[in-house]
Amino acid sequence: MIIKKIFNNNAILAKESGKHEFVVMGCGIAFKKNIGDEVEETLIEKTFILKQKDASEKFKLLLEDIPTEHVSLCYDIIEYAKNILGVELNDYIYVTLTDHISYAIKIFDEKLNRPNGLIWEIKKFYPREFQIGLKSLELIESETGKKLPEDEAGNIALHLINAQVNDSGNKMQDITNQTKMIKDILNIVTYTYNVILDEKSLNYERFVTHLRFFFQRLNKEEKIEIEDDFLLNQVKVKYKNAYECMLKIETYLEKELSEEEQLYLTIHIQRVTQR
């Protein structure tokens, strides 16, 4: 394993014969070293192997501008998130989250506040990601001595959500918009039925989960397929109020939904409004 580029004393770009380049970090790993020298493997603490070329290139650029301590801290946060969520995260998380957290620490030092207008919705709709965000704030405080505001836990959660469901071409704004739309749809149901939804119920959780994947399908233009419209016709009659509420949601979305989506939305509305 040889050194291809030196970012600083603690971070280098390395390459093994016949393999991809990857970023390696370790205390003093580049001290008194030159390009082409062998890497002292006993000093390696963290290894970043980003398979997506664009993400890899952007990560290298990031290393030139961001303190190594911040990069190392975000590595630990991402590894923790992977273990808790049990999913693969898009390589871009190493770029986007590292850049975000480093900037959040910077503006904290400058006594600036950046409120998260979706903090309540993130807590309600993405509780696991938000809890990881809170744990991240603990790690940040432990490493830097800086106690960032709870709003940043919400921002970290959004990055994690984005890395789970989006490819590299999509933007964080997609998740922000989806979260707002879920809130709006729940409000439509609440005001139509004039009830307070039980946010701790299984039916509420199922409805929100359905909406999350519903928006993913809309973005990808995927559809749920059912064999015929018999069931939808039955539901229209049996759950008339829920069906009419679904039509209000369709109007809000400004999009004609397939019969399949109409069916499942109606059923979920019926369930979530029943005590």
From TrEMBL:
<dbReference type="GO" id="GO:0006355">
    <property type="term" value="P:regulation of DNA-templated transcription"/>
</dbReference>
<dbReference type="GO" id="GO:0003723">
    <property type="term" value="F:RNA binding"/>
</dbReference>
<feature type="domain" description="PRD">
    <location>
        <begin position="65"/>
        <end position="170"/>
    </location>
</feature>
<keyword id="KW-0677">Repeat</keyword>
<dbReference type="InterPro" id="IPR036650">
    <property type="entry name" value="CAT_RNA-bd_dom_sf"/>
</dbReference>
<dbReference type="InterPro" id="IPR050661">
    <property type="entry name" value="BglG_antiterminators"/>
</dbReference>
<dbReference type="Pfam" id="PF03123">
    <property type="entry name" value="CAT_RBD"/>
</dbReference>
<feature type="domain" description="PRD">
    <location>
        <begin position="173"/>
        <end position="275"/>
    </location>
</feature>
<dbReference type="InterPro" id="IPR004341">
    <property type="entry name" value="CAT_RNA-bd_dom"/>
</dbReference>
<protein>
    <submittedName>
        <fullName>Transcription antiterminator LicT</fullName>
    </submittedName>
</protein>
<dbReference type="Pfam" id="PF00874">
    <property type="entry name" value="PRD"/>
</dbReference>
<dbReference type="InterPro" id="IPR036634">
    <property type="entry name" value="PRD_sf"/>
</dbReference>
<dbReference type="InterPro" id="IPR011608">
    <property type="entry name" value="PRD"/>
</dbReference>
